[in-house]
Amino acid sequence: MKPGQIKSTEQENGLVANSEKVMVVEEEEEEGNLVEFSEAMRTVSKVLRRAAQGKASAQAEAAEWKRKYEMERARNMHLQHKGAAYNAGNCNKQKEEHLELVSQRCCGENGICSHEVLRDSKEEDSCSDTKITKKASFKLQWCSSGDNDDQHKHDIVSFEKGHITTAERSSKQISLKWESPPQTVLILTKPNSTSVKLLCAEMVRWLTEKRKLNIYVEPRVRTELVTESSYYNFAQTWNDDKEFWLLHEIVDLVITLGGDGTVLWAASMFKGPVPPVVPFSLGSLGFMTPFYSERYKECLKSILQGGMSITLRHRLQCHVVREAAENENEGGPILVLNEVTIDRGISSFLTNLECYCDNSFVTCVQGDGLILSTTSGSTAYSLAAGGSMVHPQVPGILFTPICPHSLSFRPLILPEHVTLRIQVPFNSRGHAWVSFDGKDRKQLAPGDALVCSMSAWPVPTVCRVDSTSDFLHSIHDGLHWNLRKTQSFDGLRGI
């Protein structure tokens, strides 16, 4: 074959190969388009099928309601028509009761019955064949964990005509009214403050001369008052721990001059019942101190003479259980008003904590630690760790992790009746540390546990207005909650 013929043949073969490649690519593109088109058609068919099913369901539901309406309307008309024929005897009385029951249970606007009446399917002329079944009445009660602890049980709901309604709410506003005038006042102050010291001396003098009250102060404060002037020798204090723990039996009212820390100190002084606390704001933030010291005479005069609104601030009761002590509690219970914190301390390892709620496993905390907070403490450490702010009258326990090594670990709010057990597992790499309202720090070794429940002794703090107004004012004034510039009205507006 000649060279020219060979060259032309190669060109023809190249053209054929290229055309075959183009045809293959076009076929692949067509197949891809067909696949996409088929998938789109399947999606459309699914949407249409769901729409048809929804329409059919709606039509069936409408038809069922119409059928019930027609049946109930015919039944009412039948009963009303036959009501005139039964005017005597027991049969007449039973028919009238039945008609009254049906009419009471039916809506007056459209005749559709809102409660189903159980009866025979066949309507007979004899009144003995008609049967009406009434719902059973019942009551619900708070149930404590103890078998013989009936003193804390009380009705919380009532059942009437098929509706469950709460008998009373634990978060409603509470007021306190003196049945006899208070006689003894305990004044607690923030240390190392000249302004607080001057105010305390002035208040002690006024309460003694104008209100004729017995005044108790801390030993430190009494020493400061007597050093300033021998006039204050009448101020009383305690001399030993026995007198200290019996303060709740003689003190009628507690006045705190300081911030939230002073309120915490006042709460820690009473392991049982706590007298009403009047907190004056002389600190930094003051979420629990609504009263202003400049008007202390007006406030105290009103409180001592008449009734007042109070906030019952719940406390946590905590026990440290040592594994080496054969599951016995270490010391007595520790009461906290804000929070109990379990953290890793100085260890560089993640803390490892097993958490149980009423003997049910909750989770295993792996992070910097865990905060168990009251609702009063929801604006303290728990807030800084990402917990929610909760009204102090809401009974509950906040379960807030500290820097958890998990993106899905969100804080919880648990009911107040549960018992929480936080245990350091035996395979933990290090110890944990627990602190109570920022004090009394204790070490938890592997196997040790912390048991927390709600205390039966809340701290009643006096409100300046009421619990809700004081709470909202504290977060607005203390945290500047949701404070931003108002959006301007100029510019484009929606049509």
From TrEMBL:
Signal peptide: none annotated. Its EC number is 2.7.1.23. Keywords: ATP-binding, Coiled coil, Kinase, NAD, NADP, Nucleotide-binding, Transferase. It is an enzyme of class 2 (transferase). The keyword Nucleotide-binding applies. Residues 48-75 form a coiled coil. The keyword Kinase applies. GO terms for molecular function: ATP binding; NAD+ kinase activity. One of its GO terms (biological process) is NADP+ biosynthetic process. InterPro entries: ATP-NAD_kinase_N, ATP-NAD_kinase_PpnK-typ_C, NAD/diacylglycerol_kinase_sf, NADK. It catalyses: NAD(+) + ATP = ADP + NADP(+) + H(+). Belongs to the NAD kinase family. This is NAD(+) kinase. It comes from Helianthus annuus.
